Amino acid sequence: MSRIAYVNGRYVPHNEAAVSIEDRGYQFGDGIYEVIHIHEGRFVDTDLHLSRLARSLREVSIAPPMNDAALLVVLREVVRRNRVNEGIVYMQITRGVARRDHAFPKGIAPALVVTARHGTAFPRDIKAWAGTAITVPDIRWGRCDIKTVNLLPNCLAKQKAREAGTYEAILIDGSGGVTEGSSTTVWAVDANGVLRTRHLDDHILPGCTRAALSALLADNAIAFEERGLTEAEFRAAREVFLTSATSYVKPIVRVDGVAVGDGAPGPITTRLFGLFARHADGAAHNHAPRLASAAGIG
């Protein structure tokens, strides 16, 4: 079956999908994007992702192409047409099409593209799901809190991780602090047993899975600190794990070839993996209708 994309008001086969060569996303990276995980036919953490999408648009002064209710109709239709029960739905909004000029053009409509793709089922075996990482310098721009399509530094970091045979590249800033992964939020249980993740500011993305997990931690009276780690503290950590819409809660058992803790998923990571699995299976705030049922997907 041909994959179907939504491109500026039309549902079209991927091989017929096109945008203008003067789309500002292509010319300048002048756009933002968002990804929502689909698990067992449900969107996971819909409200968090739509809220971050709106924030990103505000931060770069791009008008929303439609309201949230209309956007959800498009997202569900793309998922339905592609028969995705496990996977992701991806949306990208650029400032639109205009003659190439650095300043923002006036009077143009934003451009919206939505795609969906199949993915593997949510992991159930934490040991099999564990991964490894390397560390690399953080060379990104100063507004990493905006989910823009300007991802070349992230791609360079991720490629280094792939070449090293690891899952992720963990970024170290110029002051020797851990910021985040190339496409993930970084968490660690420090040498004193304290669960920590970096505070939110302009230098890291406010992860939606991070926000969902933070709520689960509060609901289950699990203490954690939003406090950055130095590289030395990170390397001395008892446990390390990553979160994102596609990494979920992913244990990292080796960094730069050195075992984290005893080289296996730790007890706190294991507990949080279980909590998030139950959340993804249908927590109350994953309220979107079951997409598979609506689409007639078996």
From TrEMBL:
GO terms for cellular component: cytosol. It catalyses: L-leucine + 2-oxoglutarate = 4-methyl-2-oxopentanoate + L-glutamate; L-isoleucine + 2-oxoglutarate = (S)-3-methyl-2-oxopentanoate + L-glutamate; L-valine + 2-oxoglutarate = 3-methyl-2-oxobutanoate + L-glutamate. Its cofactor is pyridoxal 5'-phosphate. Pathway: Amino-acid biosynthesis; L-leucine biosynthesis; L-leucine from 3-methyl-2-oxobutanoate: step 4/4; Amino-acid biosynthesis; L-isoleucine biosynthesis; L-isoleucine from 2-oxobutanoate: step 4/4; Amino-acid biosynthesis; L-valine biosynthesis; L-valine from pyruvate: step 4/4. One of its GO terms (biological process) is branched-chain amino acid biosynthetic process. Its EC number is 2.6.1.42. InterPro entries: Aminotrans_IV, Aminotransferase-like, BCAT-like_C, BCAT-like_N, Class-IV_PLP-Dep_Aminotrnsfr. The keyword Amino-acid biosynthesis applies. One of its GO terms (molecular function) is branched-chain-amino-acid transaminase activity. It holds the Pfam family Aminotran_4. Keywords: Amino-acid biosynthesis, Branched-chain amino acid biosynthesis, Pyridoxal phosphate. Belongs to the class-IV pyridoxal-phosphate-dependent aminotransferase family. Acts on leucine, isoleucine and valine. This is Probable branched-chain-amino-acid aminotransferase.
